[in-house]
Amino acid sequence: MSVAIENFVKAIYKNGKHDDNDTKPGNIAKKLGISNAAATDMAKSLANKNLINYEKYKALELTEEGEKLALKVIRKHRLWEAFLYKTLEMSLHEIHREAEFLEHETSDFLADKISEYLGNPKFDPHGDPIPNADGEITTKDNSTTLSKTKEGKSYIISRLMSDDKEFFDFCAQNGLKYGNKIFVSKQFSKNKMTQININSNTILLNEDFTKIIYVNEIQ
Amino acid sequence: MSVAIENFVKAIYKNGKHDDNDTKPGNIAKKLGISNAAATDMAKSLANKNLINYEKYKALELTEEGEKLALKVIRKHRLWEAFLYKTLEMSLHEIHREAEFLEHETSDFLADKISEYLGNPKFDPHGDPIPNADGEITTKDNSTTLSKTKEGKSYIISRLMSDDKEFFDFCAQNGLKYGNKIFVSKQFSKNKMTQININSNTILLNEDFTKIIYVNEIQ
DNA sequence: AATAATATTTAAGCATACTTAAATTTTAAT
DNA sequence: ATTAAAATTTAAGTATGCTTAAATATTATT
Ligand SMILES: [Mn+2]
Ligand SMILES: [Mn+2]
Ligand SMILES: [Mn+2]
Ligand SMILES: [Mn+2]
C-alpha cells in the first residue's frame, strides 16, 4: 500500500478514536493537508480496496482490514520512536518527525526485530501504546488529563499527546517526561490552570497543555 | 527528490564506477527493472533538473549536483546497513534489503545522528566506503579480488561486493566476513578456482565468488 | 560499404494522487 | 419551513512515473 493510503487510513483511525473529531472527508483532508476533493477521491478508491466503508456524505469507517493496516502503520511509527529515542537519544519531537516517514518503508520483519531489541515494549516514549504484531493494543488505560486532577494528589505522567515541537521542548526543559512523578498543588479557576510541583520546582500550566498531558494517580 | 529519482542517479553513479557496465539508458533500465522508454523519459526529466547531462544516444553523465545526490543516497544506505547490523544483528542480506527503502526516507539530520552513534565509520559491513556528510569518499583502495591473489599468501577480507542472498549466506556460514583473515593455498586452472584456508577449514571457491570478494595482502 | 541486429527515442496511453471550480447535498439559523 | 451557510461530491485538469508499440539511430557483422 502506498504512503498516501497508509497516511489516510491512519488519519481515519486516529480521528475515529476521539468522537469530538469525526472522520468525514473534510476532517481527514484538513489533517493531511489535502483538498476535500482529494479526500473524497481517496475514500472511493479505498472503498474499492475494501479498506473502508464509504457512503456518500457519511463519516468514513475503516473495515477490519483497514483498521489492521492503520494499526500496522502505527505500530511501526511507535517502534521507530522508541528505537531512535533509545539508541540515538533524540528528542520527542525529532523521533516523531522521522517516524512519520520511516513508518511507510519498514518491513514487518524489521519492525519485529526492533520490537525484540527493545524487549517488546507496550508503550512508546510519548506513552502511546504500541500495537503488537497482530495489531492488538493492550490498553487498560485509566489515566486522566492533568486538567482533571485533584489538588494535593500525586501522579505519574503516562502520556504526552501532541506532535508540537514547542510543547515537547517545554516538557524536556521541565522534566515532564513519561514515567516521571508530579504533585498537583493547586487547580485555578475551574481547572483552567494547574499548578504542579516537579523536581522541587513549581510550574503553572494552562489548559492548552494540561489537556494533552495524561497522568495516573499514585495510590 | 522522489524515490524514483534517487534510485536513478544512484544507478548511474554505480554503473559509472565500473566502465564494463556503462550508463546508457538501457543498462540503467535493466538495473532498475523499468523499460528503456521509461529510462529515456527520466533522463530527460533529470537533465531538466540539472542532475545529469543528457545527449541523445550517449551515455548518461551525472552533473556535480547529481553526483552529490547519489552520494547522499549511498551514504544513507550504508549508514543504515551499519546501524542495523550493529544494533539488530541482522545478516548482510537483510540489512541491504531494508536499506534499499530506508535510504529514501532519512533526513540528513538522522543520517548524521546514526553516523555519530557508530563513531563515523568509513566502511559499511560489506566493506563499502561510506561517504561523509559532504559527499566525500576517502577511498585509498589498494585491494584486489580474491581471483587475483597469489598462492601461499595471507589476506584480510576488505569487501563483499554483492547483493545476493545466497552469496551472503555462504559467506556467513564459512566465516567470510569483512575484516577476517584468510590464507590462499592454491589457484587452479588460471585462477578459475581458488582454494583458501579459513578458521582451519579448506574451501574451494569458483570465479563467481572470487571476483566479488576483495582482499588486502598482509605484509 | 551494405545489411542485419540491437539500442534508443518518440508516441500514445494508463494509474496514482493531487489541484481548482462548479454543482449538489447536508446542516444550521432564522 | 425557508433560507443561508458549510461541507461534500463531481468534473475537469495536471505532474509523475510507468507501460507497449512504432520509428529511428547506432553498432556489429558480413
Ligand atoms: Mn509520533
Ligand atoms: Mn506518515
Ligand atoms: Mn547495500
Ligand atoms: Mn532504493
Helix content of chain A: 40-55%
The CATH topology of the largest domain in chain A turns out to be: SH3 type barrels
Q: What do we call the CATH homologous superfamily of the largest domain in chain A?
A: Ferrous iron transport protein A (FeoA)
- The number of E-state strands of chain A comes to 8
Main beta-sheet annotation of chain A: 6 strands, antiparallel
End-to-end distance of chain A: 46 Å
Regions with little confidence, pLDDT below 50 for 5+ residues of chain A: none
Provide tags for this entry.
alpha+beta, 8 helices, Arc Repressor Mutant, subunit A, binds manganese (II) ion, six-stranded antiparallel beta sheet, 219 residues, DNA-binding, 43% helix, SH3 type barrels
Structure in words:
Chains A, B: This is Transcriptional regulator MntR. Chains A, B: Belongs to the DtxR/MntR family. Chains A, B: Pfam families: Fe_dep_repr_C, Fe_dep_repress, FeoA. 2 copies of one chain form a homodimer. The first copy, chain A, is of the alpha+beta class and 219 residues long. Chain A has 3 domains: 3-62, Arc Repressor Mutant, subunit A; 75-139, Winged helix-like DNA-binding domain superfamily/Winged helix DNA-binding domain (Arc Repressor Mutant, subunit A, Orthogonal Bundle); 144-217, SH3 type barrels (Roll). Chain A is 43% helix and 18% strand. Chain A contains 8 helices and 8 strands; from the N terminus they run αααββαααββαβββαβ. Chain A has helices spanning 3-17, 25-32, 36-48, 64-88, 92-102, 108-117, 165-173, 207-210; strands at 52-53, 61-62, 144-145, 153-160, 181-188, 193-198, 201-206, 213-217. In chain A, the strands form 2 sheets. Chain A has a 6-stranded antiparallel β-sheet with strand order 3-8-4-5-6-7. In chain A, strands 1-2 form a two-stranded antiparallel sheet. The termini of chain A are far apart. Chains A and B meet through α4, α5 and α6 of A and α4, α5 and α6 of B. The structure holds manganese (II) ion (4 copies). Residues 7, 100, 103-104 of chain A line the site of one manganese (II) ion. The first copy, chain A, binds a DNA duplex (30 and 30 nucleotides) through α3.
